[in-house]
């Protein structure tokens, strides 16, 4: 594949930091991009995704599906000649197990207040 056919992408994390930019083939799937993000995720972040399903990629206001390729997801290839396309990364918060849900529910009960209007 010619160097000109590659798409240059960077991934903007929730805190404004970036992963990349790097060049990718238009036939690269969104799931493959998510695997790259997981492998290159900064170790100093409090929120860390565990699986590909914990990560959502957004481009042009649309959430990209794992099975789509870059060319299928309508990444604007020709709009920015020589430019870098920024995709936003959203991480799904960790799921609470039953024990954590109970602790969270107890904490909410203890921290309640009431107002009386006279």
From TrEMBL:
The keyword Lipoprotein applies. One of its GO terms (cellular component) is plasma membrane. It is a lipid-anchor. It holds the Pfam family Rad60-SLD_2. InterPro entries: MUB (IPR017000), Ubiquitin-like_dom (IPR000626), Ubiquitin-like_domsf (IPR029071), UBL3-like (IPR040015), UBL3-like_ubiquitin_dom (IPR039540). It is found in: Cell membrane. Its main location: membrane. Keywords: Cell membrane, Lipoprotein, Membrane, Methylation, Prenylation. Residues 7-75 form the Ubiquitin-like domain. The keyword Flavoprotein does not apply. May serve as docking site to facilitate the association of other proteins to the plasma membrane. This is Membrane-anchored ubiquitin-fold protein.
